[in-house]
Amino acid sequence: MAPKSRQSFQLSALPVAMFAHLVAIAVMALLLVWLLHFRDGAPIVNGDWVYLNSRGSYNGIQDCTSNKKVFKFHNELGIPDMYTLHSWLGLSTICLFGLQLLFAFFAFLFPGAEWSTRARLAPWHVFFGIVIFFMAILSAETGLVEKFIFLKLQRGQEALIVNFTGLLILLFGISVGLTVLLPQRY
User: Fold this and answer.
1) What's the pTM value of the predicted model, to 2 decimals?
2) Which residue from 26, 53, 154, 170 lies 20 to 30 Å from 18 (Cα-Cα)?
3) In the Cβ-directed half-sphere of 96, how many Cα atoms lie within 13 Å?
4) Cα–Cα distance between 116 and 22 in angstroms, integer?
5) Would strands 48-49 and 44-45 be described as parallel, antiparallel, or unpaired?
6) Residues 85, 142: contact at Cβ < 8 Å?
7) What is the pLDDT of residues 69-105, one digit of tens each?
8) Alpha carbon of 52 to those of 8, 45, 63, 94, 118: distances in Å?
9) What is the Cα–Cα distance from 72 to 63, expressed in whole angstroms?
């Protein structure tokens, strides 16, 4: 039988959240090693950074400007746009994040919203936030696979770093998902 409440878990969210932060730091460290050691730094085209938001957080405004830069980069090199699962997932994630932000503004921050309405909408807001977060994780994973294939990586240190980065991104997503499910004791 399924547990009836979050209190049935014997673990609080705090240690899992701390673990998620450590994993995020490890992901950033591996990305830096990969970019600086194997890729000679992040590529810059006409002064614009090409790599997207590879941090453990999600900044929708930065991602919108980054998407503009990616489309510009593709156009300059003659690469077609929106032809991979990675690009479709990424754009869908950013669009849903924008809708979620707009929805949250009117449902939770707008002064005229009633508390009963906010209480009814809060679980749905959390659910769609989790969905969007896992879409971002999936976008990052498919982006790594795409880069792995485009670089024609075989066995070697670079391939290992890319694979371990992907595994750590997955572990980060799982630990953040578990943090949301576990009871939060302050």
Assistant:
1) 0.75
2) 53
3) 18
4) 38
5) antiparallel
6) yes
7) 776 766 777 777 777 888 889 889 988 998 999 988 8
8) 39, 13, 7, 12, 33
9) 14
